[in-house]
Amino acid sequence: MGKQESGGEGEESGLPLFESTSARFRGIYRVFASTILVGICLIWVYRVTNIPQPGEAGRWAWIGMLVAEFWFSLYWIITQSVRWDVTYRRPFKDRLSHRYEDKLPGVDIFICTADPKMEPPTLVVNTLLSVLAYNYPTEKLNVYVSDDGGSEFTFYALLEAASFAKYWTPFCKKFNIEPRSPQAYFALHSDVHDVKYGQEWLEIKKLYEDMKNRIESAVETGKIPEETKMQHKGFSEWNLKVSKNDHQPIVQIITDGRDTNAMDNDGCRLATMVYVSREKRPQQPHHFKAGAVNALLRVSSEISKAPFILLLDCDMYANNADSIREALCFFLDGKYGHEIAFVQHPQNYSNLTKDDIYGSGCFVINAVELAGLGGYGAALFCGTGCFHRRECLFGKKYTKDYRGQRNTESQNTIDRSIQELEESAKAVVTCSYEKGTKWGKEMGLIYGCPVEDIVSGLAIQCRGWKSIYYNPERKGFLGISPNTLDLALIQQKRWCEGLFQIFFSKYCPFIYGHGKIMLGAQMGYCLYLLWAPLSFPTMCYVTVPPLCLLHGIPLFPKVSSPWFLAFAYVFVAKNVYSIIEALQCGSSLKAWWNLQRMWLIRRITSYFFAFFDTIKRQLGLSETDFALTDKVMTEDVTKRYEQEVMEFGSPSIMYTVLATSALLNLLSLVWGTRRVAMDIDSEASEQLISQVFLCGILVMINLPVYQALFFRSDKGHIPSSVIFKSVLLLTLACLMPIY
Ligand SMILES: O=c1ccn([C@@H]2O[C@H](COP(=O)(O)OP(=O)(O)O[C@H]3O[C@H](CO)[C@@H](O)[C@H](O)[C@H]3O)[C@@H](O)[C@H]2O)c(=O)[nH]1
Ligand SMILES: [Mn+2]
Predict the structure, then answer these.
(1) Which CATH superfamily is domain 93-347+382-481 in?
(2) Membrane topology per the record (predicted)?
(3) Residue 148, annotated ligand binder?
């Protein structure tokens, strides 16, 4: 896609609907990156030419360091691919309104939820209400909620939301408020004196709270009000025995957007709203979120079949009322629009703490790396906050003569009754429907991978389509990030396993993408796919130097040696750049530091275990799973999260590894400092200074770990069983001879 310019001037297409610009100072950056590369090469030369002789102590440790540094360097080179040509996109939504206002296409919005306990119905409802209030003709919106929890309470919550939306949507539009998730809005504007339209505000707030209380008390008591149950035939579905993993297909059209008599409080037509819970049977694979999305694809084909689809997780509320219009600018652009399969927003979170204790903020990833991949026309599909062209999700290949759908109005369902639509929709979400079809392979999201999104996005790109990464100033969507270390590490492990699995599958970007996406994009994908093997060099770097220090074996050049400069330069330049980059992307210095800790922890725990689990899966010894992220917390945990105190709390084996490495570095630091201080001018000591320094940094990074090990008494501290195991492991490690 063109840089600096976009769109065609043709009569039919008019002015471009979006523009692309490249990041500034790329030239300077490339020169700088080259100097680091020189430093890296010097380090290799030093390592290779100074390997200890056979029989000399530390020969294998040295070789380990060599391999680790080589691996780090390769990875660093890969990280350059996404920094080479960072591209930003800007849509012109006013031009869209001018040209298309009276023929705006329909949009289907998919919301996935999977468990009423971990994803409470009020959460789902807030997401739903935020999208119903988009600045877009409501009758062109069709919202589908997929409930993998098969929960009556979620269904009940949707009914409540449908009535409340009749007040909420007009309120949002009338006063042009943001954000449009009621929960988020009232949290942000919590005082009636701050708003000019106080009376309306009070009324709508009361309506919202009443609705919320009804839903929450229904969930708490496990009882839905009888009169509501009588009013809606949908509840009869739960007369049969329905459990999360065993129930018939359920499809309920809650509001019918075709009905020209159904109006909201302001006399505007309503959006179509559909509750879907696909059939589930024990022993029948349901393919987790990918299966849910594919079910919605088929259901929506029966009911509304809009040409564009917005895919959302139930915790991702819409934070910008114009997102649909902006996305359409890309799809409907006269020159490039028809090549574009999807428009991905970054994942942002509403619940980050000030300094982002668990490193979920992804400041640099969102502002630089993903924009870098987007520059190759190969933006990653991240599962949520993504607009799709319907045909592309159905496996269509891009061809040169494709010009985009001409007829954007959906006509096919006009003369069918709600009953008929529900029946035909149920038929396409049974367990047996997909048997012997291309679903999950060439159609819909791809099955068998815990990161179904990434692999499906890659497959779409390899069918010839382009994708757009769009990171607007006002965030398009806000979700909930994990708020305990356990949850964060489990999520990272799922991602890491899924990503590594793609690398080994037929979808490996270098093979599958060869000749189809640019080399830079292939490398960019691998930046993420290769997280798992990155655990080994990291493991090596946090164990070998401290162990060698304990044994007095040097691994780095003397401080006075010219070789030392290469190490120092690479270390300083890389980290200083990383800090500047993070600050520019909106991170704070402390958040950067916290992220370094999280990288370290992830690599030696989540990624390390993910590596072995992936191998196990490749050998056919285990099956794909999807560990859902819990979105509710106890008060105690919330409090610590807000104070940015790390939450350990469980005796996870991951913490044993973490604690062992932290203790090892502490021990070595003490020992090494003593040794260096005692004989300051001996040559051996001078050679050990770098190792002491390295241990020092690791100890600083691990400070919260020592705290949780020895000084905390709250429930989030590291359990004593972990301490015991770590000390045992540490003793073994120290007694081990070094080769
Ligand atoms: O059997 C399932 C499991 C999950 N989900 C939904 O999938 C979404 C993501 O689940 P979550 O537990 O929040 O996982 P995250 O790690 O936060 O999800 C990220 O990573 C996933 C891939 O691992 C992507 O699918 C998501 O879009 C992306 O937000 C949620 O809406 C769930 O309701 C289902 O519908 N059915
Ligand atoms: Mn999530």
Answers:
(1) Spore Coat Polysaccharide Biosynthesis Protein SpsA; Chain A (3.90.550.10)
(2) Multi-pass membrane protein
(3) yes
pLDDT tens per residue, range 474-508 = 999 999 999 999 999 999 999 999 999 999 999 99
Order of strands across the sheet that contains 386-389: 250-255, 272-277, 141-147, 107-113, 308-313, 386-389, 340-344, 466-469
Give the pTM: 0.95
Q: Which residues of the chain have pLDDT under 70?
A: 1-13, 406-413, 680-681
pLDDT of residue 678: 84
Q: Which two tokens stand for residue 664?
A: 């090892």
Q: How far is CA 146 from the centre of its chain?
A: 19
C-alpha distances (whole Å) from 628 to each of 49, 375, 450 are 49, 32, 11
pLDDT recorded at residue 411 = 54
Residue among 119, 128, 289, 630 to mutate when testing ligand 1 (max atoms within 8 A of CB): 289
Confidence (pLDDT) at 413: 64
Q: SS in 3 state form for 633-652?
A: CCHHHHHHHHCCCCCCCCCC
Specify the 3-state DSSP secondary structure of 466. Answer: strand
For the segment 278-304, what is each residue's pLDDT rounded down to a tens digit?
999 999 999 999 999 999 999 999 999
* Ligand 1 mean position, distance from CA 299 (Å): 20
Task: List the chain domain ranges.
Answer: 26-84+517-735, 93-347+382-481
Measured distance CA(516)–CA(17) in Å, rounded = 26
Catalytic residue among 148, 333, 356, 613: 148
487 in helix, strand or coil?
Answer: helix
Q: What's the pLDDT score for residue 4? A: 44
Nearest protein Cα to ligand 1, atom 19: 383
| Rounded alpha-carbon distances, angstroms, from residue 708 to 626, 715, 730 | 29, 10, 18
Using omega within 30 degrees of 0 as the cis cutoff, is the peptide bond preceding 179 cis?
A: yes
Q: How far is the CA of 481 from the centre of ligand 2 (A)?
A: 6
